[in-house]
Design brief:
single chain, 1 helix, mainly beta, about 110 residues
């Protein structure tokens, strides 16, 4: 059950956005399109591997991980898979490092682009 993140990176960079659902302090939902700069490591195993995304376009200020939902969708279509980040670290301005574990609900027989 490996997901090849080089393919993942290419897909994300082609689309150039990851949709993050961010709940503001008043509990209302907001969406932010985030441009990704990098995705590491080069591959991941569901339920085990920690993936780190570096992106820009995040709202300013602290963003608690519990307020964010990461949505992964197979490049060829299919049902989206969601997960919460383990951490969100401010790098500079609107740049953040977002780390998450590949969801264990993803089950693939060969490397798959998400």
């Amino acid at each position: 059950m490996l997901i090849h993140t080089n393919l993942l990176k290419k897909f994300f960079l082609l689309v150039s956005a990851l949709l993050l659902t961010i709940l503001n302090a008043w509990g209302a939902s907001a969406f932010a399109a985030v441009s990704l700069t990098s995705v590491t490591p080069s591959c991941g195993q569901a339920g085990i591997t920690n993936i780190t995304l570096l992106g820009s376009g995040f709202p300013s200020g602290a963003i608690p991980p519990a307020s964010v939902t990461i949505t992964l969708t197979r490049a060829g279509g299919g049902s989206p898979v969601t997960t919460a980040p383990r951490s969100i670290i401010s790098v500079s301005g609107t740049m953040r490092k977002v780390s998450f574990i590949v969801p264990s609900s993803i089950s693939v027989q060969s490397p798959t682009v998400y």
